[in-house]
Amino acid sequence: MNSSAPLCRTPMTSSQHSPWTARPPTRCSWPTTTSKSSVRPAPSPDRAAPCTHPRVDERVAPQEADMRSDAPANKPTVMHVFPGQGDFSLDALRKAVQARPVVNAAARRVFPEVDAAVADLGIPALEPLLWAPAQQNVPASAPPGTAQVALYAACVTVHVALCQAGLPPDRLAGVSFGEIPALAAAGAFTVADGARIAVALARALPRNTSGMVWLGVGEKDAIRFLAELGDERVALGCVNGPDQCVVAGTSAALMAVQQLAKHRGLASGRIKLPYYAHHPELAAAAAEFESAVRAYPARPPGLAVFSAAHGRAYRQDEDIHHTLAQVITRTAHVPRVIAAACADRPALLLEAGTGASATQSAPQLSTGIRARAPLADEDFPWPAPGQLPAAES
Protein backbone atom coordinates (compact mmCIF):
# COMPACT_ATOMS: atom_id res chain seq x y z
CA MET A 1 0.00 0.00 0.00
CA ASN A 2 3.00 2.29 -0.39
CA SER A 3 2.74 2.62 -4.14
CA SER A 4 3.17 6.11 -5.56
CA ALA A 5 0.76 5.51 -8.41
CA PRO A 6 -2.41 7.62 -8.22
CA LEU A 7 -4.80 6.08 -5.72
CA CYS A 8 -7.56 5.90 -8.33
CA ARG A 9 -5.42 3.92 -10.76
CA THR A 10 -4.00 0.93 -8.89
CA PRO A 11 -6.03 -2.30 -8.76
CA MET A 12 -6.76 -4.08 -5.51
CA THR A 13 -5.75 -7.62 -4.79
CA SER A 14 -8.39 -10.30 -4.51
CA SER A 15 -7.93 -10.37 -0.76
CA GLN A 16 -9.15 -6.80 -0.49
CA HIS A 17 -12.59 -6.98 -2.03
CA SER A 18 -15.07 -4.46 -0.79
CA PRO A 19 -17.41 -5.83 1.88
CA TRP A 20 -20.41 -4.41 0.02
CA THR A 21 -20.10 -6.50 -3.15
CA ALA A 22 -19.02 -10.02 -3.89
CA ARG A 23 -16.98 -8.90 -6.87
CA PRO A 24 -13.85 -6.74 -6.90
CA PRO A 25 -14.47 -3.01 -6.68
CA THR A 26 -13.52 -0.60 -9.44
CA ARG A 27 -9.97 -0.04 -10.56
CA CYS A 28 -10.01 3.28 -8.81
CA SER A 29 -9.16 1.92 -5.39
CA TRP A 30 -6.60 1.67 -2.68
CA PRO A 31 -3.05 0.82 -3.81
CA THR A 32 -1.61 -2.51 -2.74
CA THR A 33 1.62 -2.84 -4.65
CA THR A 34 4.98 -1.16 -4.70
CA SER A 35 5.88 -2.46 -8.12
CA LYS A 36 7.56 0.16 -10.30
CA SER A 37 5.35 -0.94 -13.15
CA SER A 38 2.34 0.46 -11.28
CA VAL A 39 3.65 4.01 -11.61
CA ARG A 40 2.29 5.33 -14.85
CA PRO A 41 3.83 8.11 -16.93
CA ALA A 42 2.76 11.48 -15.57
CA PRO A 43 0.67 13.81 -17.74
CA SER A 44 1.43 17.35 -18.75
CA PRO A 45 0.07 19.90 -16.27
CA ASP A 46 -2.89 20.78 -18.47
CA ARG A 47 -3.90 17.25 -19.29
CA ALA A 48 -4.68 14.48 -16.86
CA ALA A 49 -3.46 10.95 -17.41
CA PRO A 50 -5.93 8.79 -19.33
CA CYS A 51 -8.18 6.59 -17.25
CA THR A 52 -10.05 3.52 -18.43
CA HIS A 53 -12.69 4.01 -15.75
CA PRO A 54 -16.14 5.30 -16.80
CA ARG A 55 -16.99 8.80 -15.70
CA VAL A 56 -20.30 10.18 -14.53
CA ASP A 57 -23.07 8.21 -16.19
CA GLU A 58 -26.47 6.80 -15.44
CA ARG A 59 -25.07 3.59 -13.97
CA VAL A 60 -23.22 5.52 -11.28
CA ALA A 61 -25.48 8.41 -10.43
CA PRO A 62 -28.72 9.05 -12.31
CA GLN A 63 -29.30 12.01 -9.98
CA GLU A 64 -26.25 13.71 -11.53
CA ALA A 65 -27.74 13.86 -15.03
CA ASP A 66 -28.09 17.63 -14.81
CA MET A 67 -24.34 17.97 -14.23
CA ARG A 68 -23.30 17.10 -17.75
CA SER A 69 -24.29 17.36 -21.37
CA ASP A 70 -25.50 14.25 -23.17
CA ALA A 71 -22.91 14.97 -25.85
CA PRO A 72 -19.72 13.00 -25.13
CA ALA A 73 -17.57 15.94 -26.20
CA ASN A 74 -19.14 18.01 -23.44
CA LYS A 75 -18.77 15.41 -20.74
CA PRO A 76 -17.49 17.27 -17.68
CA THR A 77 -14.02 17.07 -16.28
CA VAL A 78 -14.27 15.46 -12.84
CA MET A 79 -12.08 17.20 -10.28
CA HIS A 80 -11.63 16.22 -6.64
CA VAL A 81 -11.03 19.34 -4.55
CA PHE A 82 -9.15 18.88 -1.27
CA PRO A 83 -10.02 21.62 1.27
CA GLY A 84 -8.08 23.43 3.95
CA GLN A 85 -8.48 23.02 7.69
CA GLY A 86 -11.24 25.50 8.44
CA ASP A 87 -14.18 23.21 7.61
CA PHE A 88 -13.12 19.88 9.11
CA SER A 89 -15.66 17.79 11.01
CA LEU A 90 -14.71 14.36 12.24
CA ASP A 91 -18.35 13.80 13.12
CA ALA A 92 -19.36 14.23 9.46
CA LEU A 93 -16.89 11.53 8.48
CA ARG A 94 -18.05 9.29 11.33
CA LYS A 95 -21.65 9.52 10.15
CA ALA A 96 -20.67 8.70 6.58
CA VAL A 97 -18.53 5.76 7.66
CA GLN A 98 -21.39 4.31 9.67
CA ALA A 99 -24.07 4.98 7.03
CA ARG A 100 -22.30 4.52 3.69
CA PRO A 101 -20.63 1.15 2.99
CA VAL A 102 -18.37 2.56 0.30
CA VAL A 103 -17.03 5.22 2.70
CA ASN A 104 -16.72 2.58 5.43
CA ALA A 105 -14.63 0.37 3.14
CA ALA A 106 -12.36 3.27 2.18
CA ALA A 107 -11.84 4.33 5.81
CA ARG A 108 -10.91 0.78 6.81
CA ARG A 109 -8.11 0.90 4.26
CA VAL A 110 -6.89 4.45 4.79
CA PHE A 111 -6.91 4.96 8.56
CA PRO A 112 -4.87 1.88 9.59
CA GLU A 113 -2.06 2.83 7.21
CA VAL A 114 -2.11 6.45 8.31
CA ASP A 115 -2.13 5.47 12.00
CA ALA A 116 0.85 3.17 11.47
CA ALA A 117 2.76 5.85 9.57
CA VAL A 118 2.59 8.47 12.32
CA ALA A 119 2.73 6.32 15.44
CA ASP A 120 6.45 6.93 15.87
CA LEU A 121 5.76 10.69 15.70
CA GLY A 122 3.66 10.52 18.85
CA ILE A 123 0.30 10.77 17.09
CA PRO A 124 -2.36 8.59 18.75
CA ALA A 125 -4.38 6.13 16.68
CA LEU A 126 -7.29 7.88 15.00
CA GLU A 127 -9.27 4.97 13.59
CA PRO A 128 -10.99 4.28 16.96
CA LEU A 129 -12.56 7.76 16.78
CA LEU A 130 -14.55 6.61 13.74
CA TRP A 131 -16.47 4.19 15.94
CA ALA A 132 -16.70 6.47 18.99
CA PRO A 133 -19.93 8.13 20.16
CA ALA A 134 -21.17 11.13 18.21
CA GLN A 135 -19.54 14.51 18.75
CA GLN A 136 -16.27 12.99 19.99
CA ASN A 137 -13.53 14.84 18.12
CA VAL A 138 -9.77 15.04 18.30
CA PRO A 139 -8.98 16.21 21.87
CA ALA A 140 -7.52 19.70 22.17
CA SER A 141 -4.80 18.20 24.34
CA ALA A 142 -3.65 15.82 21.58
CA PRO A 143 -0.06 16.23 20.34
CA PRO A 144 0.47 18.90 17.66
CA GLY A 145 -0.29 17.44 14.26
CA THR A 146 -3.06 15.07 15.41
CA ALA A 147 -5.91 17.14 13.99
CA GLN A 148 -4.02 17.60 10.73
CA VAL A 149 -3.51 13.85 10.37
CA ALA A 150 -7.21 13.32 11.01
CA LEU A 151 -8.11 15.77 8.25
CA TYR A 152 -5.55 14.24 5.91
CA ALA A 153 -6.94 10.74 6.47
CA ALA A 154 -10.50 12.01 6.03
CA CYS A 155 -9.63 13.66 2.70
CA VAL A 156 -7.90 10.56 1.36
CA THR A 157 -10.82 8.43 2.54
CA VAL A 158 -13.38 10.53 0.64
CA HIS A 159 -11.17 10.49 -2.45
CA VAL A 160 -10.83 6.70 -2.37
CA ALA A 161 -14.57 6.30 -1.72
CA LEU A 162 -15.40 8.48 -4.73
CA CYS A 163 -13.09 6.40 -6.88
CA GLN A 164 -14.76 3.23 -5.60
CA ALA A 165 -18.16 4.76 -6.36
CA GLY A 166 -17.25 5.26 -10.01
CA LEU A 167 -16.35 8.95 -9.76
CA PRO A 168 -12.55 9.02 -10.15
CA PRO A 169 -10.94 12.36 -10.97
CA ASP A 170 -9.48 13.68 -14.19
CA ARG A 171 -7.75 16.39 -12.18
CA LEU A 172 -7.13 17.29 -8.56
CA ALA A 173 -7.00 20.61 -6.73
CA GLY A 174 -5.63 21.44 -3.31
CA VAL A 175 -6.61 24.41 -1.16
CA SER A 176 -4.08 25.31 1.53
CA PHE A 177 -3.49 22.17 3.65
CA GLY A 178 -5.44 20.25 1.01
CA GLU A 179 -2.42 20.25 -1.29
CA ILE A 180 -0.88 17.51 0.86
CA PRO A 181 -3.64 14.90 0.37
CA ALA A 182 -4.06 16.04 -3.25
CA LEU A 183 -0.40 15.28 -3.96
CA ALA A 184 -0.69 11.92 -2.20
CA ALA A 185 -3.80 11.08 -4.21
CA ALA A 186 -1.85 11.85 -7.38
CA GLY A 187 1.01 9.57 -6.34
CA ALA A 188 3.55 12.35 -5.77
CA PHE A 189 3.89 11.09 -2.18
CA THR A 190 2.92 7.78 -0.68
CA VAL A 191 -0.11 7.86 1.58
CA ALA A 192 2.11 7.16 4.59
CA ASP A 193 4.54 9.95 3.75
CA GLY A 194 1.66 12.35 3.16
CA ALA A 195 0.52 11.72 6.73
CA ARG A 196 4.02 12.43 8.04
CA ILE A 197 4.13 15.64 5.98
CA ALA A 198 0.86 16.74 7.60
CA VAL A 199 2.53 16.41 10.99
CA ALA A 200 5.60 18.31 9.80
CA LEU A 201 3.43 21.20 8.65
CA ALA A 202 1.58 21.49 11.95
CA ARG A 203 4.83 21.45 13.89
CA ALA A 204 6.57 24.04 11.70
CA LEU A 205 3.92 26.74 12.19
CA PRO A 206 4.12 29.02 15.26
CA ARG A 207 1.34 28.21 17.70
CA ASN A 208 -0.89 30.04 20.18
CA THR A 209 0.18 33.57 19.21
CA SER A 210 -1.68 33.88 15.91
CA GLY A 211 -4.71 32.77 13.98
CA MET A 212 -7.11 33.40 11.12
CA VAL A 213 -10.46 35.20 10.73
CA TRP A 214 -12.95 34.89 7.90
CA LEU A 215 -14.69 37.96 6.53
CA GLY A 216 -17.94 38.00 4.59
CA VAL A 217 -16.54 40.06 1.71
CA GLY A 218 -14.90 39.47 -1.64
CA GLU A 219 -11.27 40.02 -2.53
CA LYS A 220 -11.47 43.71 -3.49
CA ASP A 221 -13.41 44.63 -0.37
CA ALA A 222 -11.03 42.58 1.78
CA ILE A 223 -8.06 44.47 0.37
CA ARG A 224 -9.78 47.80 1.09
CA PHE A 225 -10.62 46.55 4.59
CA LEU A 226 -6.97 45.70 5.28
CA ALA A 227 -5.85 49.07 3.95
CA GLU A 228 -8.24 50.77 6.36
CA LEU A 229 -7.02 48.55 9.20
CA GLY A 230 -3.44 49.59 8.47
CA ASP A 231 -1.79 46.77 10.40
CA GLU A 232 1.05 44.98 8.60
CA ARG A 233 0.71 42.05 11.01
CA VAL A 234 -2.46 41.05 9.12
CA ALA A 235 -2.43 39.72 5.56
CA LEU A 236 -4.96 38.37 3.10
CA GLY A 237 -4.63 34.61 3.58
CA CYS A 238 -7.33 33.03 1.41
CA VAL A 239 -9.89 34.07 -1.16
CA ASN A 240 -12.57 31.41 -0.82
CA GLY A 241 -15.11 32.87 -3.21
CA PRO A 242 -16.87 36.01 -4.38
CA ASP A 243 -18.15 36.79 -0.90
CA GLN A 244 -15.69 35.30 1.58
CA CYS A 245 -12.03 35.85 2.39
CA VAL A 246 -9.75 34.84 5.24
CA VAL A 247 -7.13 37.07 6.86
CA ALA A 248 -4.17 35.86 8.89
CA GLY A 249 -2.18 37.54 11.61
CA THR A 250 -1.23 37.72 15.25
CA SER A 251 -3.91 37.19 17.87
CA ALA A 252 -3.77 40.82 19.01
CA ALA A 253 -4.10 42.09 15.44
CA LEU A 254 -7.05 39.79 14.76
CA MET A 255 -8.95 41.32 17.67
CA ALA A 256 -8.68 44.64 15.85
CA VAL A 257 -9.86 42.94 12.65
CA GLN A 258 -13.03 41.69 14.29
CA GLN A 259 -13.67 45.02 16.00
CA LEU A 260 -13.42 46.86 12.69
CA ALA A 261 -15.58 44.25 10.98
CA LYS A 262 -18.26 44.72 13.63
CA HIS A 263 -18.04 48.48 13.25
CA ARG A 264 -18.46 48.16 9.47
CA GLY A 265 -21.33 45.70 9.82
CA LEU A 266 -19.38 42.87 8.19
CA ALA A 267 -19.86 39.23 9.07
CA SER A 268 -16.73 37.66 10.52
CA GLY A 269 -15.57 34.77 12.68
CA ARG A 270 -12.47 33.26 14.16
CA ILE A 271 -11.31 30.02 12.56
CA LYS A 272 -10.57 27.38 15.17
CA LEU A 273 -6.86 26.95 14.54
CA PRO A 274 -4.03 27.62 17.01
CA TYR A 275 -1.80 29.17 14.33
CA TYR A 276 -1.91 31.02 11.05
CA ALA A 277 -0.75 30.35 7.50
CA HIS A 278 -0.64 32.14 4.14
CA HIS A 279 1.32 35.05 5.52
CA PRO A 280 4.55 36.55 4.09
CA GLU A 281 6.14 36.68 7.54
CA LEU A 282 6.16 32.87 7.70
CA ALA A 283 9.23 32.47 5.50
CA ALA A 284 11.22 30.88 8.35
CA ALA A 285 8.43 28.38 9.02
CA ALA A 286 8.27 27.58 5.30
CA ALA A 287 12.01 26.89 5.25
CA GLU A 288 11.74 24.63 8.31
CA PHE A 289 8.84 22.75 6.73
CA GLU A 290 10.68 22.34 3.44
CA SER A 291 13.72 20.94 5.22
CA ALA A 292 11.54 18.44 7.09
CA VAL A 293 9.60 17.20 4.07
CA ARG A 294 12.69 16.58 1.96
CA ALA A 295 13.04 13.39 3.99
CA TYR A 296 10.09 12.03 1.98
CA PRO A 297 10.67 11.22 -1.71
CA ALA A 298 8.50 12.97 -4.26
CA ARG A 299 7.62 11.86 -7.78
CA PRO A 300 5.91 13.71 -10.63
CA PRO A 301 2.16 13.61 -10.03
CA GLY A 302 0.30 10.96 -12.01
CA LEU A 303 -2.67 13.35 -12.30
CA ALA A 304 -2.68 17.10 -12.76
CA VAL A 305 -2.69 18.73 -9.30
CA PHE A 306 -3.77 22.37 -9.19
CA SER A 307 -2.56 24.57 -6.35
CA ALA A 308 -4.79 27.35 -5.00
CA ALA A 309 -1.72 29.09 -3.59
CA HIS A 310 0.15 29.07 -6.90
CA GLY A 311 -2.82 29.38 -9.24
CA ARG A 312 -1.61 26.62 -11.52
CA ALA A 313 -0.88 22.91 -11.76
CA TYR A 314 2.32 21.39 -10.46
CA ARG A 315 4.75 20.93 -13.35
CA GLN A 316 6.41 17.62 -14.17
CA ASP A 317 9.86 19.07 -13.44
CA GLU A 318 8.64 20.79 -10.26
CA ASP A 319 10.65 20.86 -7.05
CA ILE A 320 7.56 19.61 -5.23
CA HIS A 321 9.01 20.00 -1.74
CA HIS A 322 9.86 23.67 -2.35
CA THR A 323 6.60 24.51 -4.11
CA LEU A 324 4.55 22.85 -1.36
CA ALA A 325 6.47 24.72 1.35
CA GLN A 326 5.86 28.06 -0.34
CA VAL A 327 2.12 27.59 0.15
CA ILE A 328 2.67 28.72 3.74
CA THR A 329 3.59 32.25 2.66
CA ARG A 330 1.21 32.74 -0.27
CA THR A 331 -2.46 33.69 -0.55
CA ALA A 332 -4.67 30.72 -1.48
CA HIS A 333 -7.03 31.87 -4.22
CA VAL A 334 -9.80 29.34 -4.81
CA PRO A 335 -11.69 31.09 -7.67
CA ARG A 336 -8.45 31.61 -9.60
CA VAL A 337 -7.34 28.00 -9.41
CA ILE A 338 -10.80 26.67 -10.28
CA ALA A 339 -10.85 28.96 -13.31
CA ALA A 340 -7.42 27.67 -14.34
CA ALA A 341 -8.41 24.03 -13.89
CA CYS A 342 -11.83 24.28 -15.53
CA ALA A 343 -11.22 26.73 -18.36
CA ASP A 344 -11.35 24.22 -21.21
CA ARG A 345 -14.60 22.30 -20.61
CA PRO A 346 -17.56 21.81 -18.25
CA ALA A 347 -16.55 20.52 -14.84
CA LEU A 348 -17.97 18.53 -11.96
CA LEU A 349 -16.22 19.42 -8.70
CA LEU A 350 -16.39 16.95 -5.83
CA GLU A 351 -15.14 18.01 -2.41
CA ALA A 352 -12.73 15.45 -0.99
CA GLY A 353 -13.27 16.57 2.57
CA THR A 354 -15.93 16.62 5.26
CA GLY A 355 -17.58 19.96 4.46
CA ALA A 356 -18.36 22.19 1.49
CA SER A 357 -16.05 25.18 1.94
CA ALA A 358 -13.83 24.52 -1.07
CA THR A 359 -16.61 24.02 -3.60
CA GLN A 360 -19.66 25.95 -2.36
CA SER A 361 -18.93 29.08 -4.39
CA ALA A 362 -17.65 27.29 -7.52
CA PRO A 363 -20.96 27.37 -9.46
CA GLN A 364 -20.95 31.18 -9.14
CA LEU A 365 -17.76 31.31 -11.20
CA SER A 366 -19.12 29.74 -14.39
CA THR A 367 -22.32 28.24 -15.71
CA GLY A 368 -20.24 25.25 -16.84
CA ILE A 369 -19.26 24.29 -13.28
CA ARG A 370 -21.31 22.05 -11.01
CA ALA A 371 -20.18 21.11 -7.53
CA ARG A 372 -21.13 18.60 -4.86
CA ALA A 373 -19.85 17.98 -1.34
CA PRO A 374 -20.37 14.23 -0.80
CA LEU A 375 -20.20 14.26 3.00
CA ALA A 376 -22.17 17.48 3.40
CA ASP A 377 -24.87 16.61 0.85
CA GLU A 378 -27.32 14.19 2.39
CA ASP A 379 -28.68 13.28 -1.03
CA PHE A 380 -25.31 12.55 -2.63
CA PRO A 381 -25.74 9.34 -4.68
CA TRP A 382 -23.33 6.94 -2.99
CA PRO A 383 -23.82 3.31 -4.12
CA ALA A 384 -26.32 1.40 -2.03
CA PRO A 385 -25.30 -1.86 -0.28
CA GLY A 386 -25.00 -4.55 -2.91
CA GLN A 387 -24.93 -2.10 -5.83
CA LEU A 388 -21.97 -2.65 -8.13
CA PRO A 389 -19.66 0.21 -9.08
CA ALA A 390 -19.98 1.37 -12.66
CA ALA A 391 -17.01 -0.60 -14.01
CA GLU A 392 -18.43 -3.86 -12.63
CA SER A 393 -21.94 -3.67 -14.06
UniProtKB/TrEMBL annotation:
<dbReference type="GO" id="GO:0004314">
    <property type="term" value="F:[acyl-carrier-protein] S-malonyltransferase activity"/>
</dbReference>
<dbReference type="GO" id="GO:0005829">
    <property type="term" value="C:cytosol"/>
</dbReference>
<protein>
    <recommendedName>
        <fullName>Malonyl-CoA:ACP transacylase (MAT) domain-containing protein</fullName>
    </recommendedName>
</protein>
<feature type="domain" description="Malonyl-CoA:ACP transacylase (MAT)">
    <location>
        <begin position="81"/>
        <end position="391"/>
    </location>
</feature>
<feature type="compositionally biased region" description="Polar residues">
    <location>
        <begin position="29"/>
        <end position="38"/>
    </location>
</feature>
<feature type="region of interest" description="Disordered">
    <location>
        <begin position="374"/>
        <end position="393"/>
    </location>
</feature>
<dbReference type="InterPro" id="IPR014043">
    <property type="entry name" value="Acyl_transferase_dom"/>
</dbReference>
<dbReference type="InterPro" id="IPR016035">
    <property type="entry name" value="Acyl_Trfase/lysoPLipase"/>
</dbReference>
<dbReference type="GO" id="GO:0006633">
    <property type="term" value="P:fatty acid biosynthetic process"/>
</dbReference>
<feature type="compositionally biased region" description="Polar residues">
    <location>
        <begin position="1"/>
        <end position="19"/>
    </location>
</feature>
<dbReference type="InterPro" id="IPR016036">
    <property type="entry name" value="Malonyl_transacylase_ACP-bd"/>
</dbReference>
<dbReference type="InterPro" id="IPR001227">
    <property type="entry name" value="Ac_transferase_dom_sf"/>
</dbReference>
<dbReference type="InterPro" id="IPR050858">
    <property type="entry name" value="Mal-CoA-ACP_Trans/PKS_FabD"/>
</dbReference>
<feature type="region of interest" description="Disordered">
    <location>
        <begin position="1"/>
        <end position="56"/>
    </location>
</feature>
<dbReference type="Pfam" id="PF00698">
    <property type="entry name" value="Acyl_transf_1"/>
</dbReference>
